[in-house]
Amino acid sequence: MHTVHGYTDLPNDLPARPTLALGNFDGVHHGHQAVIAAARAVRPDAPLAVATFDPHPRSFFAPDAPPFRLTQLPEKIRKLAALGVETCYVLPFDKALSAMTPDEFVSTVLVNNLDISAVTVGGDFRFGAKRAGDTTTLEMLGKQHGFAVTALDSVADEEGALYSSSSARAALRDGKPDEATAILGEPHRIRGIVEQGDQRGRKLSFPTANLALDDILAPKFGVYAVKAEIMDGPHKGLVSGVANIGLRPTFEKTVPILEAHLFDFDGDLYGTEIAVALFSFIRPERKFDGLESLTKQIAADVETARGITGARA
Length: 313
Description:
Strand order of the largest sheet: 1-4-3-2-5-6
CATH architecture of the largest domain: 3-Layer(aba) Sandwich
Order of helices and strands: EEHEHHEHHEHEHHEHEEEEEH
Distance between the termini: 39 Å
CATH class of the largest domain: Alpha Beta
CATH topology of the largest domain: Rossmann fold
């Protein structure tokens, strides 16, 4: 898949006249997947492209708000590639883009630069300065500029609950990763470069790979059964484990991180990129009265997580 940052000075080898799925696609959940499938169906013989925004517009307008984004850009790109998208345009949501009127966005970005043949969006899509444009606006501009427009209704599960990024966020905040999985189509993954910590886990005989949460949503603090994908290097592959997400109150930390203990693994992961998938919530984070009680609880968590992930010793 081609990944293009920006919408000007595009590479010459991009597929021409794509059919485009347009939106934030945070989480690339089942509803987003339906929009992308609809884009493909409009013109099956046309190249399939996605245009998404980075940073998320909400982050641009409220930079001091708590992190809420579900999917880091590399994870979003991974999921889009798996759906057969040929080109992903990452549109920089900055002052210039946010100030465009709906007409300017369509003519400048979609027509003059991306040269689309069709566009598909969700039914609640809004665009342009002050969210002035909606699907009716887009359809009108599509007729003016000669491209087809499809607005897809929201997609629901068998029980009638709508798939949405907000419902996935709520599930993760509530410590219900299984519900998030049902919305996202796969377990929620937190991806990053393994950082060196204080190595207390190693001293307790449970070494951990530590990831910063940075600007993504923090799931409910606590212990999870996980599977970690080591993305590169000599240990590349999938390893089951147990992870704590939170502030580590026993050690009076103030910045939340993810600490993953990988089962039956012996290797150096510092500086390595990994993605930790949340399978099941085991228990809330809590403060222990000493290292002995903490170590005993970690051992119990390990056994619980082994049972959930099928990684029996």
